Amino acid sequence: MRKFLFLAFLLVIFIPSIAVGQASLTGYGSVNHIAFKSIPKIPAPNQLIQLSVESYSTNLNKMMIVWYLDGEEIESGYGVKSIQFRTGETGTKQIVKVLIKKLGNVIMEKTHYISPADVNIIFESDTYTPPFYRGKTLPSHQTRVKIIAIPNFIDSNNKKVDQDNIMYSWRINGWFNQDQSGVGKNVYIYDGPLVSRPVEVEVTAEDIDSNLVAKKTETLYLIEPEIIFYEKNPIYGTIFERAISDKANLNGVEIEISGAPYFFDISNTQNINFRWSADGNEVSNGVEKSIVLRRTDGNPGNIEIGLEIENFDKILQYTKSNFSLFYEEIFDLDFSF
Hints:
Elements: H1 2-23, E1 34-39, E2 48-55, E3 64-69, E4 72-78, E5 82-86, E6 94-102, E7 105-114, E8 118-125, E9 144-152, E10 166-172, E11 175-183, E12 187-191, E13 199-207, E14 213-220, E15 226-233, E16 237-244, E17 247-250, E18 254-262, E19 272-278, E20 281-282, E21 290-294, E22 301-311, E23 318-327
């Protein structure tokens, strides 16, 4: 009987306290029961973003929600769970505060900080372009591409963060590459495969000493190599500033034509084969970048000049092109050679 009374006494004491404990799990007064969600997850500078608040313990649709941005109220109302605004410049810091109210009383509040940073991606290739070429070398099939991340991180002291203090995470077509990721690894080496398709490159850069983070995604397109024809002058050399398109004129007795293998990998020149043809007949030994064309008489006419360039080591690096060479009737010239 005494044991029963003692047990009843314990139940009377502990049952109310268990009920109070359950009541405290409703989330009132606790910031741990609300969370922010940002779209995009990693905002860039001067970007329009959507910031939402979520709770798994409280029905926010019935709550008065008040939003502040840098101390100024920008939105409020029942069930207003998201706002849109534009981020600041690189190096700025925005403070977003949300208050959850019920019956006029603040039951939850939380603060979110946004410090936008930026990172860019550039592609570099060792493919061929002639001297003084004004454009950039472009990656073609089966070539090696150097992918470089250039971060623009400004810390709280308004100083630029050293890129060697940043951790880089690289993904190629969605696959994370652990070997080429890490602190200070802002360069990724990509070797083009045999099957060439557009390549999605993603890098996430994070300052190891702060919460600065940025993400960038670019698409790498591998192009077809091409041939550009130029006249090679015996005095001035190859005239790169004047390309031959679909036709050229032979005004004298002979002309030398050079074929430039744009965007080929020529790291091993022994693997590059040049096959010149005249009206479909092969007229070269496969190693000469240029060909000399000489008239045998003064009669007018034209001839089709073709060139095929092939990299024996990389089968996708192949292209061909041609142009028409016209020559008018001329007199009193020596055609002997």
